[in-house]
Amino acid sequence: MSTTDTALRDDIRLLGRLLGSVLRHYEGDAMFERIEQIRQTSTRFGRHGDPADGRQLDRLLKKLDRDASVSVVRAFSYFSHLANLAEDQQQVRALRRARLAAEPLRGSLAQTVELLASRGVTAARTRALLHDACLMPVLTAHPTEVQRKSILDTERAIAHLLDDSAGAELAAEERSERLGALIATLWQTRMLRPEKLTVADEIGNALSYWQSTFLTQVPALYGDLARRLGADTPAAPAPGRPFLRLGSWIGGDRDGHPHVGAQTMRAALGAQAGVVLNHYLHEVHLLGSELSISALLRPAGAALQRLAAASPDPSPHRLDEPYRRALTGVYARLHATAQSLGLGLQLRPPLGAASPYSGAAEFEAELAIVAQALDASGNAAIARHRLHPLQRAVRAFGFHGATLDLRQNSDVFEAVVAELLAAAEVCPDYRRLPEAERIKLLARELAHARPLLSAHLPYSERTRQELAVFDAARELRAHFGAAAIDKHIVSHTETLSDLLEVALLQKETGLLAGNEVRRCALMIVPLFETIEDLQAAPQIMREWLQHPGLRHLLIPEDAVSGGLPLQEVMLGYSDSNKDGGFLASNWALYRATQALRAVFDEHGVKLRLFHGRGGSIGRGGGPSFDAILAQPPGSVGGQLRLTEQGEIIHAKYADARIGRHQLELLVSALLQASLPATRALPRQAEYEAALQDIAQHAHRTYRALVYDTPGFAAFFFSATPIAEIMELNIGSRPAARKATGRIEDLRAIPWVFSWGQCRMLLPGWYGFGSAVEAWLATAGGTAARRARMQLLRDMARDWPFFRALTSNMEMVLAKTDLAIAGRYVQLAADKAQAAAIFGTIRTEYKLTLRHWLAISGQRALLESNPELARNLKNRLPYLDPLNHLQVELIKRHREAAHDERAGERAGERTRRGIHLTINGISAALRNTG
User: Fold this and answer.
1) Where are the alpha helices (DSSP H) in 133-255?
2) Is 857 left (phi over 0), alpha (psi -120 to 50) or beta?
3) CA–CA distance from 753 to each of 291, 314, 468, 613, 759 (Å)?
4) 240 pLDDT band (50/70/90 cuts)?
């Protein structure tokens, strides 16, 4: 066992021992022994599948009363949380060890710069790419973020004590005592929220990652790039527009969310601006205290002297300290800016009154005067510690923080535009028009100066709310800068008119402007979600780009890359997976990417793809670095946005060191995929033809189960915890678009979340085995079958797309446990039907496992990834009991729902126990939805 493996084992044992001591202290020895007995029995059942152990486990669980059940669930859940902290610390050790040993990790900037140099890519060429590039992780709030902020804060404190560098300052006994106290605090902290999460809560949760990671690590990453590439990177044309920046949907995503609108947009940008300006003020204050340089000893330049002379600082003691005087003036102006933006920050008062900045560019210009003065006086080294990171932060975040995306469903826009046209007596029934007539009408209205809106006409509440969103966007852009809001995403895009409707609403709210050429202020981004929509996407975009007048109208003036107009298209991973299964979905996304790039190249427009990836494999999750490198050759081109969803934000960015590594991986992947432009493999066409056939078989297999099997919806709703998940206060958004009980109307997030909870994880693998089997069966003989199997092995070895796809599938297969899933199946109302459906799922799992092992050449899953195999093995003794407890509690809950004698309070305790198991299983699996 390696030294690092030993350290991980020791951390897990220490945390487990301390949790055990806390259990004994607060719950008693008897409860501790019961928990241990359940853990040991569950472990035996998981290893051997002995029915006797299963019956013993049932007896142990049935003996637990409601209060005891909650205590047992909390114990196993908290161990999963603590194991996560230990694994994160293991990752920090690996990063530290690589840095000290000067051994570039795969995906690090050091490794990437070396790789690019070996390809003949110069530093100047890399800088040129980054000057026009865009890399934007977009934070989203979804119903899988199950952790409370109070829990997160305590876990951060535990992680700090686990850190070798921090823990070394303490004696072992004192360290254990402090850890024990924090674990005791966790044990006495409520895991669940008493009320459903609000949008304001989600905004606050996201901002905690700004404070822990983004505000410091994004500037640090820019500094590292500057050192490696020989110049500051890049020379951003304006604050808020460098290549690496952050986006957010929290407060702007209205799709199916009744609580998001103009007010949440204002709240989100106000909260972001508050955090950002508070950081700037803190850093400027520290700079002022540090830069005590006297003009008597080191004369200052004229620009700095003018800045110092404008300061409201009246102290005679600082007359010879131009840097301090200049910075007190900067602080005063920044303070006035915060007040003018209405941020309501509790700030250190300035030394005098000053005028607010007109924008972040003016603030940055004054910081540049200070930096240039230091450089000119031979003090450039002094600027590197605090001033340069602050300058880079201002370039990256401006006064707004993250760019707030707006999103709404196309059906809503259709209804709003129809109402506006009817009220203005332009078209009595817009919805009845064929698509060609819609386009003609919308293009005419967009060219017309006459507004449709009238202050004297009544409109529906929905229309008023949507118009208020666009009005708020116009106001917030004026308030915080154009980078604050610059896109509107259209969910469920099916036609060109879906996009023109958004342009029309921009025209009606003052967001369509220009003299000779009128342009939308907000880029309209189509989101193609289902497999059918993905297949239609290239034709819709071709129709847009070749339509006379529309191309210039819809692409904002500042949307330019490399001298070409730039347009973004979003691809949805979640709904396409729910629609057609993971293999067909991923292949449809790949093919759509290829076709879209060809269309955009044909029309001389730069394509930026926005990947709507979720946390789980069933929603496009998996390592981002590999996913970016797996994109079709030439499709990245220095332009990429991708969502960071739910608990994945916590896993990646809660720890600043891990967060820095994750950001570095994104930058490295962007560079490696773009420089030089990746080329097709020698056998690319052969590989793609094979996967085209396999994906079609997989699509049919998946649809046959999920949509064509009688009773499958009833099986899903009864044999998974979906009903209980829909009750849980883990997100502000409803779990379903419509309350119909149909799978089609269920959101992809709870769909995937439910399959993960019951350990079937069906969206991440189902259909692969039958698809490969069908493709091999059509080979036409044993020799041809063997040749096809060898082709699959070659694809897994040489083709980044297929390698990433199957690697993710393997991880899902390893987390799947059909013995545990079988216990959930017993919850189904129709036992015979459930047994038949589960039999189909079990057969497909075995076939998928057999074919994947044959393709990968492994004897067992994760044989080539021992670290992940070890982490899963560490979790199972504490994960499996949670599943068994969840089944028992769901059974009680559903029986009580039909029993009028069951007390409401008792039912509430059972519901609480179920929700705690959902939290614990989510933490143990680490990618829930």
Assistant:
1) 149-162, 164-167, 172-187, 199-209, 215-229
2) left
3) 53, 61, 34, 14, 10
4) very low
Residue 746: strand pairing partners: 736
Q: Where are the beta strands (DSSP E) in 658-756?
A: none
Q: H-helix or E-strand containing 608?
A: strand 606-612
Q: How far apart are the first and last CA of the chain?
A: 34
Structural contact between residues 922 and 754, judged by C-beta atoms closer than 8 angstroms = no
Question: Which residue has 């100047």 as its token pair?
Answer: 124
Reference 792, options 840, 846, 741, 854; nearest CA is 854
Residue 922 has pLDDT above 90, yes or no: no
3-class DSSP assignment, residue 32: helix
> How many C-beta atoms lie closer than 10 Å to residue 900's C-beta?
6
Three-class SS of residue 247? strand
**CB contact burial 629-648 (16+ within 10 A = b; e otherwise):** bbbbbbbbbbbbbbbbbbbb
Cα distance between residue 121 and residue 79, in whole Å: 48
List, in sequence order, the alpha helices (H) in 400-556.
410-423, 435-447, 461-480, 497-508, 531-546, 550-554
Q: Three-state secondary structure along 397-426?
A: HCCCCCEECEEEEHHHHHHHHHHHHHHCCC
User: So which residues are the catalytic ones?
Assistant: 142, 578
pLDDT (tens digit per residue) in 165-217: 665 667 888 999 999 999 999 999 988 777 777 888 889 888 989 988 999 99
Phi, psi of 103 (to 5 degrees): -110, 105
3-state secondary structure of 512: strand
732-782 pLDDT, tens digit per residue, is 555 555 555 678 778 777 888 899 999 999 999 999 999 999 999 999 889
Q: What is the model's pTM?
A: 0.92
> Strand, coil or helix: what is 448?
coil
Amino acid in the structure at residue 134: C
Tokens of 42: 């569950």
What's the Rg (C-alpha) of the chain?
29
608: β partners: 568
| Bond before 676 cis per omega within 30 degrees | yes
User: Cα(929)–Cα(924) distance, rounded to whole angstroms?
Assistant: 13
Residue 273 near residue 480, CB atoms below 8 Å: yes
Q: Which residues contact 475 (CB under 8 A, 6 or more apart)?
A: none
Residue 297 is classified by DSSP as T
Strands 564-572 and 403-404: unpaired
Non-local (6+) Cβ contacts of 73 within 8 A are 882, 885, 889, 913, 916, 917, 920
Report d(CA 669, CA 109) in Å as an integer. Answer: 10
